[in-house]
Amino acid sequence: DAKTTQPNSMESNEEEPVHLPCNHSTISGTDYIHWYRQLPSQGPEYVIHGLTSNVNNRMASLAIAEDRKSSTLILHRATLRDAAVYYCILRETGSQGNLIFGKGTKLSVKP
Amino acid sequence: NAGVTQTPKFQVLKTGQSMTLQCAQDMNHNSMYWYRQDPGMGLRLIYYSASEGTTDKGEVPNGYNVSRLNKREFSLRLESAAPSQTSVYFCASRLAGNNEQFFGPGTRLTVL
What we know:
The complex is a heterodimer.
Chain A: E1 9-13, E2 18-23, E3 31-38, E4 45-50, E5 55-56, E6 61-64, E7 70-75, E8 84-92, E9 105-110
Parallel strand pairs in A: 1-9
Antiparallel strand pairs in A: 2-7, 3-4, 3-8, 5-6, 6-7, 8-9
Chain B: E1 4-7, E2 10-13, E3 19-25, E4 31-37, E5 43-49, E6 56-57, E7 65-68, E8 74-78, E9 87-94, E10 101-103, E11 107-111
Parallel strand pairs in B: 2-11
Antiparallel strand pairs in B: 1-3, 3-8, 4-5, 4-9, 5-6, 7-8, 9-10, 9-11
């Protein structure tokens, strides 16, 4: 499985946008980009995923670079409840759905 | 829907004891997974079951066994617990053809 690189931690102010970067320079053409987040003392929860095009849902937006070697998760207005560890994960198309978690980015949100 | 449920929430074992962690999902999902998470780390896959009646090893299967009892339930057994198995264990499930995995709340296991 291709690896991802994320910053260990980031800080944001409440109600400001947050851009969480992820590098995946060895991504293959069949790898989906997934984002999960883990709130304190909880299991991970799905945020968003994409293949080539930018994606939007009620939680966030995913911006994928044209060469697919990097992507950015965008939280449009951070709230205190968004403080969590965010994981960027590559998953091969047609695989069993297995996710390979790295250490992720710990996002802190200041009021 | 309760989603993915796990029992127990907390457990303390002595080295050499055995126990089974239970996981159930009520979403009619095909695939189920067991992960462990050590402090400050991401999750690592122990075993998974792509469908009822099948199980496969993940990244860290040693010291564990699993049973896919039926479509709803997927249990993880530690036959002889070791301190290195102190961790938080998460169960997850996924509907075939869907990308999203749903996770349970976790079981915090301490082996003394």
